[in-house]
Amino acid sequence: MEMAQPESLAELLNGRRAAIDASWPAVGFLIGWLVFHSIWAGTAGALICALGVVFWRLRRGDKPRAVLFGLLGVCVAALVALRTGKAENFFLLQLLSNGASVLVWTISIVIRWPLLGVVVGAVLGQKTRWRRDPDLLRAYSRASWVWVLQYVIRVAVFLPLYAAGQTGALAVARIVLSWPLVAACLAVSWWVIQRALPAGHPGPRHPVIDEPRPSGPANDAADQPA
């Protein structure tokens, strides 16, 4: 039996939950930094929160690869901060990844491989079938610009704070621009997809593909007027 179409991208991609999980290490870092004003305390707090998220998600049966990848990112960020002796460098990886995301998502739209379509198509097991639906391709392209804007907002906020060495403000910005911004991005991009698709389109789960008719004498004769 075919599954019902998801009500939103948030349900389909679990984006809000992932963003909330990603916020906890920043909360731990902020607490450690404010209480002890120490890079070691901040990174320890971040790692404790990251390990807590991993333990909780694994107990709930989530895929270990996803949660362990998040833990690896926190470990790298902590190592950069400790090796450089600058607390603000805990957020350097986040700044660079958001800057790279602006570039990659923009390129994907320009070359007509919008990353939102790639991600949703992979989740739905469609591979590249969605690209053969012109309406769905256009909808994903327009909605992907919302994601580009999300990354631009983060870079615009993180960069001046990082340059000024405002560690506490960076941690707060990291928290505020995680799940609230992701939730807004998911909601707006879903609205854009719905607005871009023509009336009667079955939605992302069901790409509308006009399969070419095979050529042959029988088909050619059928196309001839009576």
The proportion of residues forming helix, as a percent range, comes to over 70%
Number of domains: 1
Tell the overall outline: elongated
- Compressed to H and E, one letter per element, the order equals HHHHHHHHHH
Total number of helices: 10
Distance between the termini: 42 Å
- C-alpha-based Rg, rounded: 22 Å
Strand content: under 5%
Low-confidence stretches: 1-6, 220-226
Q: Profile the largest sheet.
A: none
Structural class by secondary-structure content: mainly alpha
Transmembrane segments: 30-54, 66-82, 102-124, 145-165, 171-193
Organism: Actinoplanes cyaneus
Protein name: DUF3159 domain-containing protein
Region (Disordered): 203-226
Structure described in brief:
With 226 residues, the protein is an all-alpha fold. It has helices spanning 9-13, 15-36, 39-59, 64-84, 92-110, 115-123, 134-163, 167-176, 179-196, 217-223. The chain crosses the membrane at residues 30-54, 66-82, 102-124, 145-165, 171-193.
